[in-house]
Design a protein that fits this description.
alpha+beta; nine-stranded mixed beta sheet; 2 helices; globular
Length: 143
């Protein structure tokens, strides 16, 4: 595959680099909805919401899946940079922990809380729901 047919993808978080390499295509959970980025894409800046990042490797290997807990995205014609609040490879997600996080957030929302606690609980609920959705999707792909 020629270099012009690929785009370099970097996925990083405060914990460190999660992925770096060439891709044919990358799909991301932008604030406005899922977007696909191919080589020579127009420059773009966007916020990311919690969700799934899919990378189609340049070598034609299987799609790689990642979870991001939100963050920012920068797209240049030859490079995609994901600066995530949290990021992990999808196969490293812990379903039991995500279910417990969702339960805790729902319990907090059921009580009397101030607006800051409510916003934090809603953000935690969104992250947990996105993780569980990705876990379920991977389970269906593997079946």
């Amino acid at each position: 595959m020629a270099a012009t047919d690929t785009i370099h993808v970097d996925i990083v978080s405060a914990e460190g680099e999660v992925f770096s390499g060439p891709a044919k295509m990358v799909f991301l959970p932008a604030a406005e909805g899922e977007i696909g980025v191919a080589p020579r894409h127009a420059p773009l800046l966007s916020l990311l919401k919690p969700g799934e990042v899919r990378v189609q490797p340049a070598d034609g290997g299987p799609e790689q899946y990642f979870f991001v807990g939100g963050g920012a995205l920068e797209v240049q014609p030859k490079k995609v940079t994901v600066l995530a609040d949290t990021a992990t490879r999808a196969h490293d997600l812990d379903e039991a922990a995500a279910i417990e996080a969702r339960k805790r957030a729902e319990e907090v929302l059921a009580g009397k809380i101030d607006k800051i606690e409510q916003a934090e609980a809603l953000a935690e609920l969104a992250r947990a729901a996105a993780q569980l959705k990705l876990i379920d999707r991977l389970r269906k792909i593997r079946s």
